[in-house]
Design a protein that fits this description.
Cofactor: Mg(2+)
Helix content: 40-55%
Number of helices: 11
Order of helices and strands: EHEHHEHEEEEHEHEHEHEEHHH
Number of strands: 12
Oligomer: single chain
Number of domains: 2
Radius of gyration: 20 Å
Organism: Methanocaldococcus infernus (strain DSM 11812 / JCM 15783 / ME)
CATH superfamily of the largest domain: Isopropylmalate Dehydrogenase
CATH architecture of the largest domain: 3-Layer(aba) Sandwich
Keywords: Magnesium, Metal-binding, NAD, Oxidoreductase
Bound molecules: 1,4-dihydronicotinamide adenine dinucleotide, magnesium ion
Pfam families: Iso_dh
Structural class: alpha/beta
Strand content: 15-25%
CATH class of the largest domain: Alpha Beta
Strand order of the largest sheet: 2-1-3-12-11-4-5-10-8-9
GO molecular function, one term: D-malate dehydrogenase (decarboxylating) (NAD+) activity
Largest sheet: 10 strands, mixed
Shape: globular
C-alpha cells in the first residue's frame, strides 16, 4: 500500500528544497501518495490563517508529514503543528560527511530534545512594570517518555554497530528542583536499559564537549531550550544549516523537517541546498520502516557530497534540482 505523506512546502526555499526531495523520493520506486497542504506567510497573507484547518486535518490523517519551512509565521505554524501532533521527541542527527567541512570526520551522534515542555511551555508573565518571568515546566511523565525514547534509539543504533550510550545534559546544580527531577528520572529509566552506557554532564560543559570531543557521543538527551541551543551549535560542527535534518516523533505522528528556515536571502534563486530536507526524508523513511530505501538515499547523497557535486553554500556550483538529479543518478 502507498505511504500517505502530507507535504507542506511552506515559504521561501521550502518551495525549492521540498520539490527536489519529492523527486528523489519518487525515484526510489517506493509507492507514495503525496497530499499537499499549505502553511506559512503566504497563505496567511491570503486567508488570515498561517495554519489552515484543512492542513491540520491532512496532517492528522497522514502517516507522516514532510515540512519545508515557514517564514515570519514559523511559531504559529511549526511550533503549533508539533504540539497538535504531540511529537514529543525532536531528533537531530549530527554526522560528518566526506567532502563537507566538519570539525572532525568521525562525528556521528543524535541529539534528542524534549519537545513539549521546559522553558518553551510558553508560560510568561509581566508581573510588574519592568519585571517579567517565564515558568520552566519539567514533569516526570514527559521526562520519562523522552528518556525511554533516547534509550530505545541507543539500542537501535547499537545494533548498527554504535557504542550504545546515552548522555544526559542538564543543569541540576543550579536548577535544583526542575533539573533535579530531570536527572533523577534519567537514572531511574537507565535501570531498565542495563545494556546501554550512561553519563551526564552540565549543559554548559556539554556545549564545550560537542566541540572538543564530539566523536565520543552516541545519543545525547536534553530538555527543550537546552536542546534547541545545543543542536544548532552541533549543526555548525558538521557543515551548517544546509545539512541539518530533524524529526519530530510522537506515539501517533511523525513530522520531518530541515532545521533551517525560509532563507529569504537566497529564496527564488534555485540555489538552496536540498540536503537537510533529503536527510529529513531519510529519517521519515526509517520511521515508516523503509530502512533499505532510506540507506540507499543516504549512500547516494554521501557519494554526491564526497564528489563536491553541491550547491554554492558547500562550495559547489549546482542548483538545487541539479544536486537532487545527481543523487537520483546514483540510487
Ligand atoms: P534561515 O535558516 O532561513 O537562514 C539562515 C542562513 O542560512 C541564511 O543565510 C540562509 O541563506 C542560510 N541557509 C538556510 N538554509 C539553507 C539551505 N538549505 N541552503 C543554503 N543556505 C541556507 O534562518 P533565518 O534567516 O534566521 O530566518 C529566515 C526566516 O525563516 C524567518 O522568517 C524565520 O522566522 C523563519 N524560520 C523558520 C523555521 C521553520 O520553519 N522551521 C526555522 C527557522 C527560521
Ligand atoms: Mg532552533
Amino acid at each position: 500500500m502507498a505511504h500517505k505523506i502530507c507535504v507542506i512546502e511552506g515559504d521561501g526555499i521550502g518551495k525549492e528544497v521540498v520539490p527536489a526531495t519529492i523527486k528523489v523520493l519518487e525515484a526510489t520506486g517506493l509507492d507514495f501518495e503525496f497530499i499537499y497542504a499549505e502553511a506559512g506567510d503566504e497563505v496567511y497573507k491570503r486567508t488570515g490563517k498561517a495554519l489552515p484547518e484543512e492542513t491540520i486535518e491532512k496532517a492528522l490523517e497522514s502517516e507522516a508529514v514532510l515540512f519545508g519551512a515557514a517564514g515570519e509565521t514559523a511559531a504559529d505554524v511549526i511550533v503549533k503543528l508539533r504540539h497538535i501532533l504531540d511529537t514529543y521527541a525532536n531528533v537531530r542527527p549530527v554526522k560528518s560527511y566526506k567532502g563537507v567541512k566538519c570539525l572532525r570526520d568521525d562525528i556521528d551522534y543524535v541529539i534528542v530534545r524534549e519537545n513539549t515542555e521546559g522553558l518553551y511551555k510558553g508560560i510568561e508573565a509581566e508581573i510588574d512594570e519592568g519585571i517579567t518571568t517565564a515558568t520552566r515546566v519539567i514533569t516526570e511523565k514527559a521526562s520519562e517518555r523522552i528518556f525511554k525514547f533516547a534509550f530505545e534509539l541507543a539500542r537501535e543504533r547499537k545494533k548498527e554497530g554504535k557504542e550504545g550510550k546515552v548522555t544526559c545534559a542538564h543543569k541540576a546544580n543550579v536548577l535544583k528542583v526542575t533539573d533535579g527531577l530531570f536527572k533523577r528520572v534519567f537514572y531511574k529509566v537507565a535501570q531498565e536499559y542495563k545494556d546501554i552506557k550512561v553519563e551526564d554532564y552540565y549543559i554548559d560543559a556539554m556545549n564545550m564537549y560537542i566541540i572538543t570531543k564530539p566523536h565520543v557521543f552516541d545519543v545525547v538527551v536534553t530538555s527543550n531550550l537546552f536542546g534547541d541551543i545545543l543542536s544548532d551549535g552541533a549543526a555548525g560542527t558538521v557543515g551548517g544549516l544546509g545539512l541539518a535534518p530533524s524529526a519530530n516523533i510522537g506515539d501517533e505522528h511523525g513530522l520531518f523537517e530541515p532545521v533551517h528556515g525560509s532563507a529569504p536571502d537566497i529564496a527564488g534563486k534555485g540555489i538552496a541546498n536540498p540536503t537537510a530536507t533529503i536527510l529529513s526524508a531519510v529519517l521519515m523513511l526509517k520511521y515508516l520502516g523503509e530502512h533499505e530505501t532510506a540507506n540507499r538515499i543516504e549512500k547516494a547523497l554521501e557519494e554526491v557530497l564526497a564528489l563536491g557535486l553541491t550547491t554554492p553554500d558547500l562550495g559547489g556550483n549546482l542548483k538545487t534540482f541539479e544536486m537532487a538529479e545527481e543523487i537520483i543518478k546514483r540510487l
